[in-house]
Design a protein that fits this description.
This protein has 246 residues and is α+β, with helices and mostly antiparallel strands. It is 20% helix and 31% strand. Strands 1, 2, 3, 4, 5, 6, 7, 8, 9 and 10 form a 10-stranded mixed sheet that branches.
């Protein structure tokens, strides 16, 4: 028996999230079917990040155990012939039998894209959140710095999360104008709570609209009250960019 690690990119538009669910098409479910068909075994992958419906990924990570004689690095090529075009394996390799994608120390990087112009563009309807009003990017950049460091992010966690602690560490948070119409919120941390990145994005949008003050961010974090933070930004703007392991 050996353990294979996959780096998985996908367009989450037509999937009900990553995690396997009855009667729903999910990324995990499609992977299980493709790998099982390839190996002739009953395969259940273990994913690093359980992205929500409509959320995309460039580099989610999953592992599975197999007795197949296919070399680890060849799984990517074999699976890409069986997977739909909106799920593509970016790389595969054999890892230690005890490697678990959610229990290793890692850095996760997410990006949230905002299309800020008078009218929406069809090209970005599945990959960016459209907002037509004026945004103060400088204030959003100032507010972003209050999130950096280790904090209790309970105010930025949706109800229903089953976690032992809401303390997380954010290593970097940037608000980057890509051009005159697109803004990217890029955040890197050791882990994220349920909807945490989308709530941070929604809060920074409120700062940009001048509905929340820059100096209010530290008080919102300290409150640990979800009601004090901004709304949860829509899923389509979010993308899991990378998971890097120590």
């Amino acid at each position: 028996m050996k353990r294979i690690k996959l780096v998985v990119a996908y367009d989450g538009t037509h999937y009900h999230g990553w995690q396997l669910q009855p009667r729903e098409i999910t990324v995990e479910g499609v992977l299980n079917e493709a790998i099982s068909a390839l190996t002739g075994e009953e395969i259940q992958v273990i994913g690093a990040s359980r992205t929500d419906a409509g959320v995309h990924a460039l580099g989610n990570v999953a592992v599975f155990d197999t007795q197949s004689r296919i070399p680890g690095e060849k799984f990517a090529y074999a699976l890409n012939q069986r997977l739909p075009e909106d799920i593509v394996i970016q790389g595969s390799e054999e890892v230690a039998p005890d490697f678990h994608p959610r229990h290793q120390k890692c850095r996760k990087t997410y990006e949230y894209t905002i299309l800020n112009r008078r009218f929406p563009l069809p090209e970005y309807r599945h990959t960016a959140f459209f907002y037509y009003g004026k945004l103060d990017i400088h204030k959003m950049q100032e507010a972003a710095q209050f999130f950096v460091g280790e904090h209790d992010f309970a105010a930025f966690c949706s109800a229903g999360a089953q976690v032992r602690t809401t303390v997380r560490e954010i290593y970097a948070l940037e608000v980057i104008p890509l051009d005159s119409e697109r803004i990217v919120i890029r955040v890197q941390g050791n882990g994220f709570l349920y909807n945490m990145v989308r709530i941070i994005a929604g809060t920074l949008l409120e700062v940009g609209k001048e509905q929340i003050g820059v100096s209010d961010i530290s008080d919102i974090i300290a409150s640990c009250d979800r009601g004090q933070a901004g709304p949860t930004a829509p899923a389509q703007g979010l993308k899991l960019v990378e998971i890097s392991y120590e």
